[in-house]
Each structure stands twice: as structure tokens, then as C-alpha cells.
Amino acid sequence: GAVVSQHPSWVICKSGTSVKIECRSLDFQATTMFWYRQFPKQSLMLMATSNEGSKATYEQGVEKDKFLINHASLTLSTLTVTSAHPEDSSFYICRGTTRGLDEAFFGQGTRLTVV
Amino acid sequence: GENVEQHPSTLSVQEGDSAVIKCTYSDSASNYFPWYKQELGKGPQLIIDIRSNVGEKKDQRIAVTLNKTAKHFSLHITETQPEDSAVYFCAASASNFGNEKLTFGTGTRLTIIP
Q: Which residues in chain B show pLDDT less than 50?
């Protein structure tokens, strides 16, 4: 299947700093990228959906100014957690797809720890 | 919106035995039901899926059954092996395609006892 490469796999940052997570589609052009957050032993919660070249659509309760999503190209989507706090510590996962593809592919995930 | 419930939350089975995980969904418009396997520290991987026009689908040791009337679907793993140990998630989508939004169940931690 197609590959979505997500980096970094883990990151530790200090409170108040920003962290950028990248997801690259390696062998297809991802017109759509879904971003999820997963707390320990919990399910995946959709945060936002981004389409290449347009603004992301955020789920209810997700602060768009805190979780900045950029999808400027067909092979790269980024999630920036701004002014991170300990409660933002979580596992963040992207899932990319494109028109005509009957499946979407997950990245490997990024474990963010804010200290 | 869609709500997906998954049971059990944890499941331990002896190697070689079968494991069954069940999910129920609320939105009768849902048409696509995938199952994912997630290993520690990794993103979920699709292992099998089923669409509403099919009642059962099998892929080697893995099978999925769907009851649209009752709005539930199940994952069956036969002849379990230690490498089957992982967290399994069911999901549902109102789309016929697998590239749309999914609503996930709460996950089942499956442990295979050697």
C-alpha cells in the first residue's frame, strides 16, 4: 500500500514552546490529510481534516489557533502545536489519502511529551 | 453523529484459540467498516474491511461479519499467534469508500498467551 511518513516519531518540549509534526506522502499525492490525537489507552479522536491548498476543517472543541495545520503541497502536511502545555502531551497521528484511492494510510505517529 | 462502541476492552486468549471482538454503531447510514491493528508506538494498520452490501469477509485467519439490521460487526481471529497481540480498533464511515472520515471504537487490547 501507499506510505505516509511521519516525523518525528517522538519529541519532548518545554511548556510554552511550539512543536511541528510533519507527514509526507511518499508514493502518492495526498489531497486530504486527517489529523488524530490519541491519549493513552484511548481511541483516535479526529482533530481536523486538511485539503491541499485550502484551510483545514477543525472538529468541534479543537482550537484552530493552537493546532495549526498547513497542507501547502500534495506531499506534505504539517501540524504545529503552539504554546504547548503538559495537557497537550499525546500521540498524534496523520492519515493521508487522495481522490480515487479507496483507502487512507496512517503515518507512524508522533509521541509528544510536554514538560 | 456516529457513535461506535467496542467490546471487550481487553481480551486474553491462549495461543491457537480464537478471538472475537465486537462493535456496534449508531448511524444506519454507515456503509464502510474497517478494522485496524495498532502495535505499541505505531500508527494503526488496516487488516480487513467490509462494506454494507456484504455480510461476511475472510482473509486467511481473519474474518469480519456484519449485521446491518442489528448495526453490529465483529472481528474473528482464528488460530491466534503471539504476533497477533496488539490493540485492535473498529471504525465506521457513512461513505462507501475507505478514504473518508472514520469514527473509531474505543479499542481492544488483545494478548495472546503462549
A: none
